[in-house]
Amino acid sequence: MWFIFTLATTLLWGIAELFYKKGSHENEKYDHLRVCILVGAVMGIHAVFTLLTSDITYNPMNLIVYLPVSLCYILSMACSFFGIRFIEESLSDPIENTSGAMCSLLCVIFLNETIEPAVWIAIAIIIIGIIGVSYAERSSGEIRKQRLGKKLAIIAFAMPFCYAIIDALGSFLDIFFLEMETSPLVGIDEESIELIANVSYELTFAICGIILFAFMMFKGVKFELPKQKDKAIAAVCETAGQLTYVYAMSGNGAIAAPIISCVCVVSLLLSRIFLKEKLTKKQYIFIITIIIGIVMLGILEGE
Question: What does the alpha-carbon distance between residue 105 and residue 102 come to, in Å, rounded to a whole number?
Fold first, then answer.
């Protein structure tokens, strides 16, 4: 069953990325906030369902305790939702998926952890790919600059990198929060620690969604739910993938991790097929380089 959950996670997250892009509208100023609201709503529903059906006692203090991690993940996703309004999904998603390599570097720098030479090679491949994509963007990004203006074009291209950095910081903090010896979470044991952390994250996202919805109502921005079908599908796939991810990793994480790391490949293919996205040959070469590094890292970390 773990293999089915692994494939389901990879497919669900790839489909989520497709619909995030499909439902984004470049000219609507608050469109990325609509995505945050819908993701918050779906995650909130899932969190409540988890609390009602799971045999755990949840202490609301965990919302505050886990807040630094939750905010990192939420802010990183907000950056992604903003950038995807202007950047091709097949370009942004591989960059965002380098967060795992950045987290490894944070562990080396701040925790004095040692990593295997093969992992360094994978990280080096990813860095080469990122530098290459940035170089290729100098020429191919001119059209985007003409369309968006120089300032917005630069900000938009920076968003996938912001996602990767902030998400890596969240994953780094999770090292402390998901270890029984160091975790400040309240009322946890070995079996419930990940579930309580995930519920805290989902409830925090739901609260942020409510705040953003109130902000949009205050601003007089319309939120017509029937028109948000693509965003809603993306939110459901995101949350469903998060659920299947837990079962995939608990079954055989050593094999599941590298397969799930291929989600950016799925996203790339779906964007090419359904969104008709086209990149330059140089961009494809360096994106494939990044993907090779990500898959290598997934395999090595799963061993």
Answer: 5
Instruction: Show the tokens assigned to 121.
Output: 């090679």
- Cβ(151)–Cβ(28) below 8 Å: no
Cα separation, 209 vs 38, in Å, equals 7
Q: What is the chain's percent helix, strand, coil content, to nearest 5?
A: 80, 0, 20
Cα 297 to Cα 291: distance, rounded to the nearest angstrom:
10
Domain residue spans in the chain? 2-302
Three-state secondary structure along 220-238?
CCCCCHHHHHHHHHHHHHH
Task: Give the contacts of 201 (CB within 8 A, at least 6 positions apart).
Answer: 43, 66, 69, 70, 73
Contacts of 51 (CB under 8 A, 6+ apart): 58, 199
pTM given for the model: 0.91
Tokens of 108: 């080396």
Comparing C-alpha atoms, which of 254, 303, 292 is closest to residue 122?
292
Amino acid at site 246: V
Q: Are 269 and 223 in contact (CB under 8 A)?
A: no
Cα distance between residue 124 and residue 239, in whole Å: 32
Q: Where are the alpha helices (DSSP H) in 66-116?
A: 67-83, 89-96, 99-111
Segment-wise mean pLDDT, segments of 10 residues, the chain, 303 residues:
87 94 90 95 95 92 97 96 93 91 90 88 93 80 82 93 95 90 93 92 97 95 88 94 79 71 87 88 91 88 65
Residue type, 115: I
For residue 253, the model assigns a pLDDT of 62
CB 42 within 8 A of CB 201: no
Measure the CA–CA gap between 250 and 97, rounded to whole angstroms: 21
Taking only Cα atoms into account, the Rg of the chain, rounded to an integer number of angstroms, comes to: 19
